[in-house]
Write a structure and sequence with these properties.
Helices cover about 75% and strands about 0% of the residues. By secondary structure, it is mainly alpha-helical. It is elongated and about 80 Å long.
Length: about 325
């Protein structure tokens, strides 16, 4: 299994490198943006059909909203950056990170519903004002929060490296070669047969993380932070639909369309979550039981955290 995961990882890295070198990543972005524009035009047509009372218009409208969410997520976006980066940096399971991707997409839709609801009926704002609010205030806040999460990953990685260095120093001082060839004349056996290869019963601490520790999922507090950072910035397409349906007196249909968009977005971010976790597992698959793993894991976390922080900070500053 470790060899299979490693081969899958190498294939994924090679595919990503080929996409970048060939310029296919930029073509993919243009394809996604083009799909967004076409879906947005189709949504406007679907709303006209709904207003005219056409019977099958609702199903078609929801399908178009789903496709808009899919194209929106396939293009440049903060959700993929954070979900993918976190999955590559932290020992989180596929199911949990995929659940976070789904909940974050739905929460992003909910933030759009709340913003439009408050903007239309409380603040009396128009479409241009609410879109401007999302772009000029909420987008920088969202990317700023993501940059902070990147710095937090860097801090955790540095702390793990410091702990690994402390363990190395402890082993060096106490001569822990795990041979334990003591010459005591006690009446008990001193061969120290360890129940677990990662534990040192003589010194009382773990020298290597075991597979169970590496696979352990992170806490729900971390997951809540990820969801909040993504949900701060509502989708522009969702704002567009919600404002139009509010003006047409069919706001409930706009809410349904927004949820369909969120599911379309989740389809992409869940795939990113799966790929990121598999990529990370492939990197560490051949290192289980190797002392280098205690340093390689935090180094991955530091590198990914720096990448997230730099990209998110640049986008946040550009949006101000």
């Amino acid at each position: 299994m470790p060899r299979l995961i490693s081969l899958m990882t190498l294939a994924l890295v090679a595919l990503l490198a080929a996409l970048y070198v060939s310029g296919a990543d930029r073509a993919l972005t243009q394809w996604a943006l083009s799909g967004q524009r076409e879906a947005q035009d189709a949504m406007a047509g679907g709303l006209r059909a709904l207003r005219a009372g056409e019977g099958a218009a609702l199903a078609g409208f929801l399908l178009v909203c789903f496709s808009y969410g899919f194209f929106h997520a396939a293009g440049p976006g903060h959700g993929k950056l954070l979900i993918g980066g976190y999955g590559a940096a932290r020992a989180v399971g596929v199911v949990r990170l995929s659940s976070v991707a789904l909940v974050a997409s739905l929460a992003q839709g909910l933030s759009a519903i709340l913003l439009v609801g408050a903007g239309v009926w409380i603040w009396q704002l128009g479409r241009a004002r609410m879109t401007d609010l999302a772009d000029r205030l909420l987008a920088p806040l969202s990317f700023g929060a993501i940059a902070l999460i990147g710095l937090w990953l860097v801090w955790r990685g540095l702390r793990s490296l410091r702990l690994a260095a402390r363990h190395d120093l402890h082993d060096h001082k106490h001569g822990h070669d795990h041979g334990h060839g003591h010459g005591h004349g006690h009446g008990h056996d001193h061969d120290h047969a360890h129940d677990h290869p990662a534990d040192c019963a003589h010194c009382g601490h773990a020298h290597l993380p075991d597979p169970a520790q590496i696979a352990a999922a992170t806490g729900w507090r971390d997951m809540a932070v990820l969801i909040g950072a993504i949900a701060i910035r509502p989708c522009t397409g969702a704002l567009f639909i919600l404002i139009l349906t509010a003006q047409m007196g069919i706001f409930a249909i706009g809410v349904a369309g927004t949820l369909a968009m969120a599911l379309g977005t989740a389809a992409v971010t869940i795939a990113v979550a799966f790929g990121a976790v598999m990529l990370r597992r492939g990197v560490i698959a051949g290192l289980l039981g190797n002392p280098a793993l205690a340093k390689i894991q935090p180094m991955i976390e530091i590198a990914v955290g720096l990448l997230i922080a730099v990209i998110a900070a640049r986008i946040a500053l550009a949006a101000i």
